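Hi, here's the filled form for the chain we discussed.

Project: internal
Contact: R.S.
Residues: 275
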Amino acid sequence: MKLSIELKKRVFTGVIGASLLVGLIVWGQWIGIFFLVAALALGMVFEFTEITYGMMDRREKRYVLLSMTWFICLLNAVSPQSEFALLIISFITLFGYFLSSAKRHDKAGLDLHFRELMASAFALIYLVFMPLFLIRIYEFSNGTEWTVLFFLIVWAGDTGAYFVGKKFGKKKLYPEVSPKKTIEGSVGGLGAGIVVAFLFKWVVFHKMSWPSVVCLPVVVGLFAQMGDLCESLLKRAFDKKDSGSILPGHGGFLDRFDSVIWSAPVMYTCIRIFG
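And the returned structure, exactly as it came back:
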């Protein structure tokens, strides 16, 4: 009974969320994709700081990192394809803030203060700059179709892995990090991605090449699963079950979009090769 209720929550949240997200991509145009990326980055950074920050000034550090996240997204919109310059400037700014606030901590506290600086720098790359590739995907010719296909591949992989793993899963994929994931579920997720890509070409995106139909879901699906494992490693390191609770049945933004942010750069690269 408990499993049934959780599954219903998962399905309901997934259907509503997916419908809103696809609608934002299709009808929101460039403004829609910009606000989607900004909202995801802000939500995931907030959850990340809730997990990793532990010092007395953690609230101030959180607001600094959130402010930087918003300005990075905004400046990237004003000056497209300036990610490298923004990354360097952001790192200098972040290090400068942590340097100026180091005087608050005694010698014993500087170690943790520096560790939180490294966590913040990691968050900038992982949760802010990697999602920016969603905008790059959207800027391709037929960008709307590519972006929608990308989300469908990731979602199909996640759904296929969940149900195939539940039904047939026996061999553990990586029990030290994620005890519930199985090899059978992983293969099922890749298969579901291929089916979705085939149907998408047949019904919607006729221009997509056949190498894309096969290669995209396999390569993107593999990296999406790796992104899921990486987030599991983060939660396991800090003894957390979920990154948040804002999405019933799914957890937090980071729980739901870990696969997306990890595989977005891979999707961008694959489109440049096969598209």
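Let me know if anything looks off before we file it.
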